[in-house]
Q: What sequence folds into this?
């Protein structure tokens, strides 16, 4: 919003109130203005420092198909440091492995959610664990 001038509707990130229709609108504007192949945003709903909801959305810049990932409730958060890096690396991994856009965003979010449960800034997990969480059949195996 501050750099490019796009504001997602009535979304208020400080209160954790999201308006997905606003993201569809700004993603369409970004696709029109910049011609992006994909537009992606993580979405943190912060209830407190250790209690968040976490999801993301993606739009295919060509077809304009929009997907909102599964929303995870994370409480208590073990460590937020590295959560964005885990999201980005999950996103890159899924894109490089030709996941469909819906699976790209769900894999990236699941990767970040896994990191929120690990001390330190490194996401010490594996692809199979992320996929199990993404597919809602996760059991912790440490």
A:
């Amino acid at each position: 919003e501050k750099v490019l001038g796009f504001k997602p509707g009535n979304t208020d990130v400080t209160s954790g109130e999201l308006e997905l229709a606003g993201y569809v609108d700004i993603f369409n504007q970004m696709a029109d203005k910049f011609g992006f192949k994909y537009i992606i945003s993580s979405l943190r709903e912060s209830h407190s420092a250790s209690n968040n909801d976490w999801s993301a959305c993606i739009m295919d810049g060509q077809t304009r198909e929009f997907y909102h990932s599964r929303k995870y409730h994370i409480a208590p958060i073990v460590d937020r440091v590295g959560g964005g890096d885990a999201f980005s690396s999950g996103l890159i991994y899924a894109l490089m492995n030709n996941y469909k856009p819906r699976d790209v965003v769900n894999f990236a979010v699941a990767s970040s959610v896994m990191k929120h449960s690990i001390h330190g800034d490194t996401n010490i997990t594996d692809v199979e664990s992320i996929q199990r969480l993404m597919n809602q059949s996760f059991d912790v195996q440490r």
Notes: The mean pLDDT is 89. The longest strand covers residues 38-48. The CA atoms of residues 69 and 106 lie 5 Å apart.
